Predict the 3D structure of the following.
Amino acid sequence: MTGIRTRPETLGMGMLLAAVGGYLDAYTFVLDRVFANAQTGNVVLLAVDLSDRQWHAATTRLVPIVAFLLGVIVVEALGLTGVRQRMRHPARIALATEVVLLAILATLPDSTPDWIITTTVSFVAAVQFATFRTLVDTPYTTLLTSGNLRALVESAHRWLVTRDSGSARHTQRFAAVLFAFAAGALVGAVITRHADVAAAAVPAGLLAVLMVWLMLQTRAIERRAAATGDADRSTAEPRDRTS
């Protein structure tokens, strides 16, 4: 199914989203010693706990996995034809959901159970993962580094071998996104150590900025389209200047 975001992210947007992804990973690791963005670790630990018959531990691993799946399902539901016809900007709804959940999380006390934090971040991460998929003209992810590292090495190799300008641009973009992810993780670790659970306010604020950015971008595109349409009509049907 086509994602709910129909336009690709600019480099600036991709870097902002990657910074949020790195921040959230550092946030949950500092608080709970878990990574809530990617579910690979949770799936492996779930299997290990099941093999040891540690049923309670297995349940704690399963909860964030289910939350991640629900996040993807929500985005897929927003992309259904009937839903899209009733909602003009489903990507904004997805972003608003992320902002609200992280803002609520930031208001919770430091004694909040770990599973609530991990589950909330897993859901938010899934929504972001499923919504934002294309950096300018290339698939990417804002939550994981493995795929972006592979794309960086591949494009850098093509650039060095063929001197292709397109590969050079891809190399620079992926390098910038990876840097933003690492910077977000660094900032997230520092702030979370000082602010604890309330540190979730930072990614909530960054995503709110992104939502405003998207709205301004959409309005600019609509204005250009309207201006182009008016110009086309005036060219096709010139006004009667005799009156």
